[in-house]
Every structure is written in structure tokens, then in C-alpha cells.
Amino acid sequence: MVAVAVYMMIPETMAYMRLNAFTPAQQAAVMGVYTLGIFVFGPMVNGLVERYRRKKVCLVALLFLMVDIVAMSYLRSTAMVPDFYVLLALRAVLGATSGLAQMVLLSTLVVDAVQSFFRTEANHHVNWFGRFAVAVGPLVSLCAVSYESLEWAFTLSAVLVLIAFLLISAVKFPFKSPADEVRTFSLDRFFLASGARLFVNLMLITMMLGMLYTLALTMSFYVWMLVGLLVAVVIERVVFANAELKSQAVAGHLCVAAALLILLTQSRPAEVVPVAASLMGIGVGLLGSRFLMFFIKLSSHCQRGTSQSTYFLAWESGVGLGLGIGLCAFSGSPRLLLLGALAVTLCSGILYTGYTHCWYVHHKNR
Q: Of 268, 297, 314, 15, which is closest to residue 138 (Cα–Cα)?
């Protein structure tokens, strides 16, 4: 729910800025500042969940996230002239609150809610639901705007956060006594330093996705992208269950590159949307799932939560940077943007096959 609400805000915020004649640089700054926001509370996550109830920290973050979305909705519904710095601040708060909520959820609540031998499966399932949000969020937003209004779309985002708040409130988490020594700032549950290479590689992948979001993609594109994500779940279970370790990530890169090439080479992109969007969904799904397992297996036993936060930060950082680059550098040039996205995908693929995979095999802990 939280991820869907956050991804709904991407087309909603861009539409709001276009309606109010924000410059490409201003749009890039507003969308890109989200990336800075998600890191704000990261060093404090471990200290917060050790000093206070874990569920309460997540709920308070969700509450402030909901207030932030409502504030954006209020700006849209009033006749007041939108202020760039106000919107910049609201977007930064969106990143900070959603980042804190999701890091606590992924690094602590999900891990502590299941028995140790089910934790990898739990991480896998929860992150797949979050991965669906890359298509579901924009799709729901576009549907809301098309059939109702932009104000209604903002309101729906806040409602989804409220539902997440209520669902987490209903779950009982086992009591855990705090550690004897709690540091206010630390890398625990925040950033896996040994996974920096995986971080960069995954960030390149999702940077391509963020760049695509700046295009005027249709509802049908996101529908077929969702179909591709669902197909990726099946392919992962059937085709890559016992396949060579490198094959899934290579296949994911090839699917994404093929999707971008199809969009680039066809004179009528609308006719190839089903194929291109499905391939995009398959590629993003396979890559996201494989890199999640890389982060888990790279971490030691006590670093599982940290690996989950690092994966989340890499994914969201790439999307945020891609949005900023797409709006600032390629505004009004869809073909150049697709070429840029293809170049980023090729860089990611070359980096993975030429360096990251071999490095990972020699450094994994599980």
C-alpha cells in the first residue's frame, strides 16, 4: 500500500507542476529531492527502533506521510499560486517519511514477525508486492485522473497510506528487549557497506525506470507492464529455479534492452506497447528479484535487516535520480531519453557481467 501510494505521487506531482508551468529544472529538482529525503532518517533507524516500539515508529512515519500527501492535495485544490520551495519541501518530506516507514517495515517488522527459516521467503514475497507498485501506482493514478480529477488522485494516495496504517496497527509484534548500548547514529538497519557495488548496479537499473516515468506513458503501457511483472514471477519459479546464477540477471537486462530498442525503432510506438511494456515488466521483475537475493546472501546473519534497507535505498535512489535526469536533461526529447535509458541499461549490464557478478560470487556469505 505504501509503495503504491508513493508511486502514485510520481505522475500526480509531475502533472501538477506541468499545469502550473514549472520549468524543467524546477520539475527535476522537486522529483529528485525525494532521493535525498529517503536517506534523512536512515542513520537513525536502528536507534529509533531500539529506543521505541518498532511498530510505533513505523506508524508515526506513516501518519506524517499521510499528512504530507494531504498537504499536497490541499495545494492542488486551492487557488493559491504554487510555490516551488513549498513543493520542494513537501517532496523531501515525502521521501523522508516514506523512507523511514519502509525501512522500519522491511528491515525490522517483516524480519521480526516470522521465524528465522521463513525470513528469506518473507523478504522475497514482501518485495515482490513492492515491485508491483512500479506499475500499479502510476496506473491507479492515471485512472483516477482520467475518470475523476487530480485532487481525487491525491486523496486516493492518502487513503492507501491510511489503509497501510490500519493494517500494521492490527498486527501484534513480539516483545523485544532493547540492546544494552544503543547508538543514535549507525549503519545498522540502514546501509550495508559491503554491498556498495550491488547498490550502484541496482541503482543504474532503476534509474532507467525513473527516466521512463518522465514520458507521457499511457494506462495500457502500465497494464502490460504489470502483466510482465506477473509473468516474471512465473518465469523465476519455473525457468530460473535451478538455472546458472548469472542467467537471471542477464536475461533481465536483455529484456529491458529489447523493450527500449522496440520503442526506439518503431515509428508507431502505440502498436508495440503490449510487447515492449511486457518485456519491461519481465526484465525489471527478474532483475529486482535477483538483486534482492544478492543483498541477502551478501549479508551476514545479523545484517539481514540492513540488507533490506540497502536494497530499498538503491531501488528508490535510482528511480529518483532517473526522474531528475529525465526531466532536466531530456525534457521534450522522448527519443533522446530512450537512447539515454538504453545507454544506462547497457552500462548496468556490462558492469554486472564484467565485474559485479564475479565480485559477488567471491564475497557472498550464505
A: 15
